[in-house]
Amino acid sequence: xxxxxxxxxxxxxxxxxxxxxxxxxxxxxxxxxxxxxxxxxxxxxxxxxxxxxxxxxxxxx
Length: 61
Hints:
Layout: H1 2-22, H2 25-60
């Protein structure tokens, strides 16, 4: 299950890194900022999901 989620992300990151090597630095900085923003939002969503699952599981228990 985790592999299904992780594999596309890893593939996208490797593709982006290959593309970034050919693009000038200003675009690279914008993309890096965008990737950081995405990473932060994924972390926040993940934490919210974990909290939700914890509440649901403890209420069912």
